[in-house]
## 1
Amino acid sequence: ASLASAKSSAQTAAGQVDPGAPPHLQSGTVFQGLEYMLNQTNIGENNNKYYKAQLIETPLGVSLFTKWGRVGAAGQTQIVGPVDSDHAFQLFCKKFQSKTGVPWDDRAEIKPKRGKYCLVEMKREDTSAPNTPAGKGPALKGPVSCSLDRETQSLMELIFSEDMFNTSMKDMNIDPEKLPLGALSQAQVQRGFEALEELQSAL
């Protein structure tokens, strides 16, 4: 596999250079579609860690930037390069496979594996999407009455309480605005909702 072929088949917009990258990479450009965010969560072993990689081009050449650590922490970083572009791409793919157990070309079919990282789909800014004119969007429905018993309602209110979330994050010295996973895509959020629905059905 070569960097040129990967660039020609990329379907996503180019990303932004990670703020944790050194100054000489901040002026560079992330190759379109050639970055990934991984996450591994294991409640039993108290693991909740991330691994991020970007292929960045600067006037000096191509570098592989990686960043990893516990979610909510600054983590560690590593830069390999500048190196030959195809060599950088091979390193990029090798890192991905070692962390996920899946080749880069098969990432669309990735499934969770024990002891491996999962691919996290990130949200990207789409400036090409037209804005919906005021008053032209779908009509909003009024509040829907809840049929749950009061105890269950209280539990749901607690789970989805933004104040409780922010307080808990502060207690753990975590800034919600600086989480390393960034903004999740709508598809990633939807998969989370589906998992919660499966859990609700099981209960």
## 2
Amino acid sequence: MLSKLSGKISIKNKNTTNCVSSILNVVHKRHISKDIRFGSDARTAMLTGCNKLADAVSVTLGPKGRNVIIEQSFGSPKITKDGVTVAKSIEFNNKLANLGAQMVKQVAANTNDKAGDGTTTATILARSIFQQGCKAVDSGMNPMDLLRGINKGVEKVLEYLNSIKKRCNNNRRDI
């Protein structure tokens, strides 16, 4: 088999073919132009994706949450009430909107991995933090000061939750 990369290269086995194919893909990807934006334009576009994803996921919240029908590329549509499943199924054509959605998807996936539930609540909280953070930065707040403030807030909430938690045994009276 022959492949081109600065001329002809003779390929003798499948592993070498995969390696050359990977190199060609990397070379090809380096020539794709990037859409680079800064400031409020970038934040607004990312927030659009975050909001659309959170809107789709938020309808599944709680015991009275509604089902979402997800179109699949093959087979019948999928019906679910699981926030992380809804989040994972959403992609946007706009790269910056998709980037905002990807950040929220990561929050939902991390919550699912660590807790196994609460992905919809985590998505709604992530959207709110992102919205308020964008407002603060747009009004002139230093993003690093904002991050430090969020981290301090997380510490305080965790301290409070640890102070009120009750350990449960298998004893029904403890519950």
## 3
Amino acid sequence: MKGPAFYPLSLILIVLVAALVPLSIPWRALGGGLLLALWLAGLAGVGRQAAGYLPGHALLFLGLGLVGAEAALYAWLVVPPLSLALELVRKRGKRYLGAVVYGILWLDLFACLHQLVAVGRGLSGSSLWAWSAGIGAVGLGFVALGIARLVGSPGGAHEPGPGTG
């Protein structure tokens, strides 16, 4: 699934993000620590799939720190643990619990993305309303389809079944 360079390059990315994000030392340590915990879980084989999301999680943390979206940084703190929790719940075959974790995780990610763009672009007035409505509609649709997919099939529908392409 991942090439042999994935884990070393991900570790370098974690260190760079923790060093470059313009936040206080406790924020850097907390964000870097959460990313490092996800990296270690992937390395140990417990959260291999969740570790695949590490580059995106790290870059989102960096982006939120760069634009100064402090409220979204608080929301981001649950992303790495929820990514790992989703994988662990799905491995145990808990479809409904997995759907709840999936919904929380992705709604949180869409909220962070909303703040990243809204704060980064300085949106206000009608442009903020339009952006909020658009990301809200896309986010809710994405989460609803994902939950339906997870709940509707026996294996969580992560990989296509036989004969489905």
